[in-house]
Amino acid sequence: MSQVHGTTTDKFAGLVEYFEGSLASGADVGASIAVYHHDELVADLWGGYRDEAKTTPWDRDTLVNVWSTTKTMTFLVALMLADRGELDFNTPVATYWPEFAANGKASIEVRHLMNHCAGLSGWQETIMPEDLADWDLVTSLLAAQKPWWDDRTRTGYHAVTQGFLIGEVVRRITGTTIGQFFKSEVADVLDADFFIGLPESEEHRVSVVIPPPPESFGEAAPDSIMVRTLTSPLLDATAPGHRWWRAAEIPAANGHGNALAVATIQQVMANGGHANGHRFLSEKTCDRVFERQVGGVDMVLDVDMSFGLGYGLASSYVQVGPGTCFWGGYGGSLIMMDRDLGLTIAYMMNKMQVGLTGDTRGSEVALLAAVAAMS
Q1: Cα dihedral across residues 50, 209, 16, 33: positive or negative
Q2: What is the rounded average pLDDT of the residues 222-250?
Q3: Which residues of 314-324 are buried (b: 16+ CB within 10 A; e: fewer)?
Q4: What are the contacts of 16-22 at 24+ separation with CB within 8 A?
Q5: Which residues pair with 78 in a beta bridge?
C-alpha cells in the first residue's frame, strides 16, 4: 500500500513516484507537496509519518515548522502595504520606526531589510533562544544596535532578525502584529492553513521537525559575520519541539503550515498578484519582486545569491529562469514560483537535512514539476 495520498493531474503524476521513492528510501519521513499551474491545483500530495518512530500518519492537514520559508509570508505582507501606498521600500526605516535611527542607522532603507543588507544579521547583545518570544526586547535591541557592516550592497543573511525587522515596520504602520495582519489579510482570505504564531487549538496537528546532524562552521573565524549571525542566539533544530517557540511570532523562522497552504498563498507571485480569485498585489508591484536588487557571495550563507524584493532570484548557485523567485527553509523546505510557466511548487517536510540552504529534495520536486509543466 502506498504511503502517498492525494491527487495529481495526469501530467504531474511523476511526482507520486518520486515521493514514494523518497519515503521508501528514508530520505523523507513525512512530507507534503503541492503544485499550482495557471491557477489550477495540479498536485496535492501528502504522506509518510508525523514522527520519527513512524507511529502517526501524516495527514492532509498536518502542520510543520517550515523555518525560513516563513520569510516569504513577511515579504508578501510588506509588498501588500507597498501596493496600498502605506510603505515605501526606498524610504528610511526610521521614518516608520524612529528609534531605529540610533547608532548610525538613519539612512538604512526598508529595501535593505528585505534584502539582508542592513548589517543586523544577529544580535550584538547576548540573548537566549527563549528571548525570541519577547518581541519588544528583541526589536528594541536591534533598534539600538550598530550595524555589523556598512556596505549596503553586500548581503549577510538575516536568518532570524529579518522577520523582527520587517515585522516591526509592519506593526508601526498597521498597529497590529505581522502574524495577526497575515492571518486576517492573507491566510483567512485564502482559507490557507499557515500560522505565524500557532494557536494552542492547532497543536494536535503538529509534526515536530526531526533535527539534522550537528552543524559545522567549517573554517569560519569565530568573529566572522557567519559565526556571529548563527550564534546570536545559538539556535538548534530542537526549538520547534517547545510550545514557547510555536506560540511566539518569530516571522523569519517559526511559521507552521504545509505545502498546500504555502503554495496556495505564494502562487500570488506566479500569477501577477492574484490567487484563487483574490487580488493581493498589482502586476506592477509583483514585477518588482523579479528585479534584481543585490547579489554576490553572501557573508552568512557563503554562496552566490541574488535577491529581488525579499525573494531569491537566479544566481550561479541557484540556476533557475529569469521569471522565477523562491525561498526555502533550514533543513529542506522550498517554495518556488515561475511566472513564465504560471507555476508554483511547494515542498514541506519534517526530516531535516544539514545546511541552511537545504538539500536536493525540494529542487528535485521543482525540476519534476517544471518539466511536467513544459510538456
Answers
A1: positive
A2: 94
A3: bbeebebeebb
A4: 16/45, 18/364, 18/365, 18/368, 19/45, 19/47, 20/47, 22/361
A5: none
Query: What sign does the CA torsion over 20, 23, 26, 28 have?
Result: positive
Through-space distance between the first and last CA atoms of the chain, rounded to whole angstroms: 29
Counting every residue, how long is the chain? 375
| Spatial separation of the C-alpha atoms in residues 348 and 66, rounded to whole Å | 7
The amino acid sitting at 313 is L
Is it true that the peptide bond before 233 is cis, omega within 30 degrees of 0? yes
pTM to 2 decimals? 0.97
Max Cα distance, the chain (Å): 62
**pLDDT tens figures, 61-110:** 999 999 999 999 999 999 999 999 999 999 999 999 999 999 999 999 99
- DSSP annotation of 109 reads B
The answer to whether residue 119 scores a pLDDT higher than 60 is yes
* Predicted local confidence at residue 64, as pLDDT: 98
- 151-161 in b/e burial notation, b at 16+ Cβ within 10 A? ebebbbbbbbb
Residue 218 pLDDT = 76
122-133: per-residue pLDDT in tens? Answer: 999 999 999 999
Exposure string (b/e) for 205-226, b if CB count within 10 Å is 16 or more?
bbbbbbbbeeeeeeeeeeebbb
H or E stretch at 94: none
